[in-house]
Each structure stands twice: as C-alpha cells, then as structure tokens.
Amino acid sequence: MTDPGLEWRVEETCLNAWPALREVLLDGWLLRFSEGLTRRANSANPLRPVSRADLQTCKALYRRLELPTIFRVLSLIDPSVDERLAEAGYTREGESCVLYGPIKDVKADRDPDVQLLDHPTPEWFTAMAMLQSHSNEQAATYRRIVGQVAIPASFAALSDGGDPVGLAYGALHGGLLCYESVITDSRRRRRGYGRRIVATLAAWAKDRGAVGVCLEVEAHNAPARALYNGVGIKSELYRYHYRRERASTPL
After folding, report:
1. What whole-number distance in Å separates Cα of residue 121 and Cα of residue 135?
2. What residue ranges of the chain are covered by domains with CATH 3.40.630.30?
3. Correct CATH for 101-238 of 3.40.50.720, 3.90.870.10, 3.40.190.290, 3.40.630.30
4. How many CA atoms lie within 13 A of 174 on its CB side?
5. Which residue ranges of the chain lie beneath pLDDT 70?
6. Which of 57, 96, 177, 211 is most buried (most C-beta within 10 Å)?
7. What is the pairing mode between strands 212-218 and 176-184?
8. Phi-psi bin for 239: left (phi > 0), alpha (psi -120 to 50), beta?
9. What pLDDT does residue 247 have?
C-alpha cells in the first residue's frame, strides 16, 4: 500500500535538494527566485493541495525581480488552479514526472572509481559547468544555488583518462535520497557512467538510513527514464508541468 503522505514528503525533499536563492511564502505557495537559472528555482510551487493562487501578487513579485511569472502545477493539487492559469493566458510547458523507489529495490553499489565529496570543490563545479555547457553567469548562479543546500549531501564525480565523464549529487532528507544534476559527457553516453554514479550515491544514502530514492525528470526524456528504471526507481508518484505568462507580456 502506498503511504498517503509520501508524495508531499518527496516534494519537500526535492525542494530542499534544489533550493532557491530567494523565497517568499504566500498562502500555501512557495515562490522561488534564482536569477532565472532553471524553472524549478524560479517558479511558484504549491506546498499543500491548494485550490487557488493569487495571480496578481505573484506576478508583482516576479516582475519586481525582472523574472517571468511561472507556476509549477502539480497533479496533486486542485485541477481548477491549472484551469484558471490557462484562462489567464499562461502557456503550458515542461511536462515532468516525479519518480520513486524503495531503497531496498534500488541498485546500491559503491564504485571505487566514483569519487564522493562532502562538499563540492571548485574542480567539481568547473566540470559541472563544462558538462552542462553553462555560461560564466549561469555557472556562478549554479554555484550559489548548490551552496544553499542545507541538508546532508554527497557530490559524485567519475573520470575517464583524467577527463570528467559523469557528475551528480544526492541530498538526504527525512530518509529520502533525491538525485540532482545527474549528467554524463554527451560524447560518451551509453557506457554505464550514469548508472555507476547513481548506484554509488544510493549506497551512500543507504549507509545513512535512507528508505527511499526520488528524483524529478522530464516526462519525455526516454534515456534518463530508462536509466532510473534500470536501477530500480520504477514508480511514478505524480506529475507536474509549468504555466508561464506569455512572453509577449513586458516585464
């Protein structure tokens, strides 16, 4: 039987694993602001099964920081929220799903070639910027976001011939491991690097009492979903998408 509170505990874990640089609480919503790097860190997120959103107040706060107003709409909340956003002209994008697996079912093997760090080093950040093709500005914002992670975390790196080929980090909250920033060198995919990294992070979390593993992934990212399914993260708990104010609306 599925734990009825699991979805919201997973949501809480994912929010803590990828924090924002600034946040505002507003009537059951968490408004996140992070200089535009990723929608997750720059959107309004429900904290409970809300049935409404204050569109005008949200828009005013995002405009104050010269950011588009974006709502992250979970399948866990009242459908009327999404309907009202659509009626207000907010466009739909970024269909994603939240996956979960009990730790006992997840491949958890420590690979001696995967380096685990308690804190990200400058070299880890440099490799992440390279693999994600971040601009200097994006890389700086990424460092600040990851620097905000307050829950226990481990930062993984795998190299081949001295070159970084795979990176990720895992953050642990309430007995749940959340994977973040899982990436491999686009020129060296399908060589098992991602599998080795996530299995090593699962072993790290299991040693610390984790009971489950979760992550967020784009719904149509077939290679990523195949990777996670292959290591035992098979259940789709819920979905979400974004609603963005029309680009033609001036900030």
Report:
1. 19
2. 101-238
3. 3.40.630.30
4. 15
5. 1-2, 4, 248-251
6. 177
7. parallel
8. beta
9. 74
DSSP state, residue 85 = H
Residue with tokens 């609480």: 25
Let me know: does 21 contact 147? Beta carbons within 8 Å. Answer: no
Extract the tokens encoding 238: 């819920």
What pLDDT is stored for residue 3 in this prediction?
75
Output the six-digit token pair for 60: 């005013």
How many angstroms separate the CA atoms of 54 and 31, rounded? 11
Residue 2's pLDDT is what?
Answer: 57
Structure tokens at 21: 């640089």
Q: Are strands 70-74 and 176-184 parallel, antiparallel or unpaired?
A: unpaired
Residue given tokens 């693999």 in the structure block: 131
Structure tokens at 53: 């959103």
Residue 95 near residue 219 (C-beta atoms within 8 A): yes
CA distance 197 to 170: 10
pLDDT of residue 172: 98
